[in-house]
């Protein structure tokens, strides 16, 4: 039987395979022709990178949390200790820590408000000629939110809750009144933009997707997503920081219990935790390091003031009247105290306050830290 070949032939009897090979050799000599399209370099600028999906963003933070579970456990344990100490201590401890944290946050925002100026402003609404009214108002808002204010931001919070927390309402009976005269023009602009509800809803939706993360991790996620959502001006991290430290203690405040920690300190540990560079593992590592250091510093401050309060009570036992114990409580609640502050907060005559402060200075219980002629201030002696 005759076998047929599968090769194709042209009209002249030349195999097509050999003909194509010959044409390829001839084309190789045509050096002046452009090369194949796929071999030419691409001179077009690169297009925008595709945005990561929301699920991918949260997954990246989940992986970061899993890789730093040991340090996260240490931070959570210290926060639990701080919360328990504040539950057993006087209410003034929470205010004291809030003032210190807010003053440290003011350096992050370049406002640089010291504890002396902040204490005078919060107690007497007194500011010096060099004080920036807008800066004092903003840091005063931070103190109010760190020491109490609206309910803690929890899962499933709505945009109205966030708006009230940020003090951006200007409607009677809804949250604190937004004072345009005191707020910066950029904050007013952000508050008046009609898309605020949409931006807030987007941020809250991302936080809800991260509900399986530890509150400390969720706080870090919320801080770094805050400016992506355009909830505050890019150069103003105060609102993002205050909101985040309130979110971080979401599991520490069961309803109906004695108040404990209102926030997780982080600015006391330096500004490194707020750096917005690197991938999620690097950001979370800085966040945990700063919060661990800040919580340790807060616990140390509470130990010092507790020891001072016990020593002051023993030293002041011979004194009679209501002014000595009120002054002792005042120095427990406020890092710095002036005569004017003590007069207003205790309702005592100025001469009586000054006489008791002089007595405490002589006994080494307090010491002056300002050396000014007006608004002299004292602090508890370590």
Short structural description:
With 382 residues, the chain is mainly α. The protein contains 15 helices and three strands. The protein has a three-stranded antiparallel sheet with strand order 1-3-2, with helices on both faces.
What descriptive keywords fit this protein?
2 domains; single chain; elongated; 3 strands; Arc Repressor Mutant, subunit A; mainly alpha; 382 residues; three-stranded antiparallel sheet; 15 helices
Describe, in plain words, how this protein is organized in 3D:
The protein is mostly helical and 382 residues long. The protein has two domains: 54-169 and 184-299, no CATH class; 318-380, Arc Repressor Mutant, subunit A (Orthogonal Bundle). 54% of the residues lie in helices and 2% in strands. It contains 15 helices and three strands. A three-stranded antiparallel β-sheet has the order 1-3-2, sandwiched between helices. Helix 4 crosses helix 6 (133-146) and helix 12 (280-315) runs antiparallel to helix 13. Mean pLDDT is 83; it is low at 170-178. This is HTH DNA binding domain-containing protein. Residues 327-378 form the HTH DNA binding domain. Residues 11-23 have a biased composition (Acidic residues). InterPro entries: HTH_DNA-bd (IPR021068).
């Amino acid at each position: 039987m005759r076998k047929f070949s599968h090769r194709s032939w042209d009209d002249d009897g030349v195999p097509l395979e050999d003909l194509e090979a010959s044409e390829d050799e001839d084309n190789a000599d045509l050096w002046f022709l452009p090369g194949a399209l796929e071999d030419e370099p691409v001179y077009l600028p690169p297009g925008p990178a595709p945005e990561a999906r929301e699920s991918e963003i949260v997954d990246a933070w989940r992986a970061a949390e899993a890789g730093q579970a040991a340090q996260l456990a240490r931070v959570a344990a210290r926060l639990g200790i701080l919360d328990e100490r504040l539950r057993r201590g006087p209410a003034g401890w929470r205010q004291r820590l809030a003032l210190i944290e807010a003053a440290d946050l003011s350096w992050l925002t370049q406002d640089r408000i010291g504890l002396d100026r902040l204490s005078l402003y919060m107690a007497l609404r007194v500011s010096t000629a060099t004080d920036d009214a807008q800066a004092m108002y903003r840091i005063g808002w931070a103190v109010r939110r760190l020491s109490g204010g609206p309910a803690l931001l929890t899962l499933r919070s709505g945009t109205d809750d966030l708006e009230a927390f940020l003090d951006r309402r200007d409607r009677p009976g809804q949250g604190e009144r937004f004072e345009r005269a005191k707020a910066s023009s950029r904050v007013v602009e952000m508050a008046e933009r009609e898309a605020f509800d949409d931006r807030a809803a987007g941020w809250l939706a991302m936080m809800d997707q991260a509900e399986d993360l530890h509150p400390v991790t969720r706080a870090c996620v919320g801080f770094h997503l805050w400016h992506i959502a355009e909830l505050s001006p890019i150069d103003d991290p105060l609102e993002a920081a205050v909101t985040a430290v309130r979110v971080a203690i979401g599991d520490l405040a069961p309803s109906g219990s004695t108040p404990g920690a209102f926030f997780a300190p982080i600015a006391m540990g330096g500004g490194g935790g707020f750096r917005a560079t690197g991938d999620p593992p690097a950001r979370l590592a800085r966040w945990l390091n700063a919060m661990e250091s800040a919580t340790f510093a807060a616990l140390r401050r509470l130990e010092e003031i507790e020891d001072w309060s016990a020593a002051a009570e023993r030293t002041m036992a011979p004194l009679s009247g209501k002014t000595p114990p009120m002054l002792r409580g005042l120095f427990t609640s406020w890092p710095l105290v002036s005569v004017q502050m003590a007069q207003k907060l205790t309702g005592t005559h100025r001469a009586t306050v000054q006489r008791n402060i002089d007595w405490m200075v002589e006994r080494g219980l307090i010491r002056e830290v300002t050396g000014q002629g007006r608004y002299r201030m004292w602090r508890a002696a370590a």
